[in-house]
Amino acid sequence: METIVIDNGSYAMRAGFAGEEEPRSIIRSVVGRPKHAHLPIVFNPNEDVFYGDDAYNKYQILNLTYPIKNSVITNAKYFGNTYTSFDDMEGLWNQTFVTDLKITPSDRSVLLSECPFNPVETKSKTAQLFFEKFGVKSLSFKAQQILSLTSTGRHAGVVLDCGLSASWCVPIVDCECVKDSIVQTQVGGRHIDDYLVQLLKERSKYTYEDPLGRVTRDIKEKLSYVSTNDNVDEKSISKEYELPDKTSITIGKERYLCTQPLFDPALINIEGDGIPKSIDNAITKCDNDLLQMMYGNIVITGGSSYSFNGLMYKLQNELTKLAPPKIKILCQSDPNTSLMTWVGGALIACQSSFSNIEITKAMYNEFGVSLFTKK
């Protein structure tokens, strides 16, 4: 049976089968429980927990929890310590298996994406859940950035992973992260959303109530871009956007101004370097004989990067100014950056070497969670 591949993202989880070209399931990484115990849930009267879009669409009557932050399952506890993030994840994974993939996970192999610095405690709890609750045959973990790089056919390079809450610059050699060289910047897609709202409100254009940020994200994904020219005539770039209440707003320079915190985090009161300098710092932390290879294999991925038209072009220009003379800079990406991690996992799980990273049920039964201090 095909290995199940799951990319656990802060914004969404993507799941499917090894060897396929795209995931069969994409579910928001959110869980909802009723705000008031006496409140009737007219949609599914026999349920009291809702997952993914089902929870998101009922936000007015549910308390929403987000169990993944910065690509790591949190240790949060909710509602008087009644529930934890792992309770949420168990429900999300179970819905993915049963409802979306229409399988039982027992006696299946599973590959999970993870953050490069995934805590041992988190991996141990995850393994315990998959082996003892779901009964999987084997479990494997692989860094999201390695999987994204693999989706491009590369085994080495540096990956810029633009996530929901942060962006990672991760050098990779022989399909392994160079952990001492990883650089993180605290600007992600959510910050761009918030800054876009701020810019629109400053010009008295935006009064629409958007508690979940759906409209803001839609504006960003359809209209925002990264500019190399701040002196553009605003009329030439202005676009009309129709709000759900059928009123319209005109969006001008906000289209590109909202993306500037990627290059200058101080605009939103965040300390640290922008992504060009962060990439340069990550590369220069590597051995000198790797510099040309790294600068020539920069891969942009992450769910928050696909909406930023022009990002690759400006990034290449900025890195040319930072890199040593005569170094060739090459930035590349995929048309659908949000799926690159999952696609890379679907490829790796088909390789003959995949068994080298698998932890089998027999190994877990013998050594328990101590395995994750070794692998």
UniProtKB/TrEMBL annotation:
SUPFAM superfamilies noted in UniProt: Actin-like ATPase domain
Pfam families for this protein: Actin
Highest taxon listed in the record's lineage: Eukaryota
Family matches, as SMART domains: ACTIN
Membership in a protein family: Belongs to the actin family.
PANTHER family: ACTIN
Protein's UniProt name: Actin, putative
Species for this entry: Entamoeba invadens
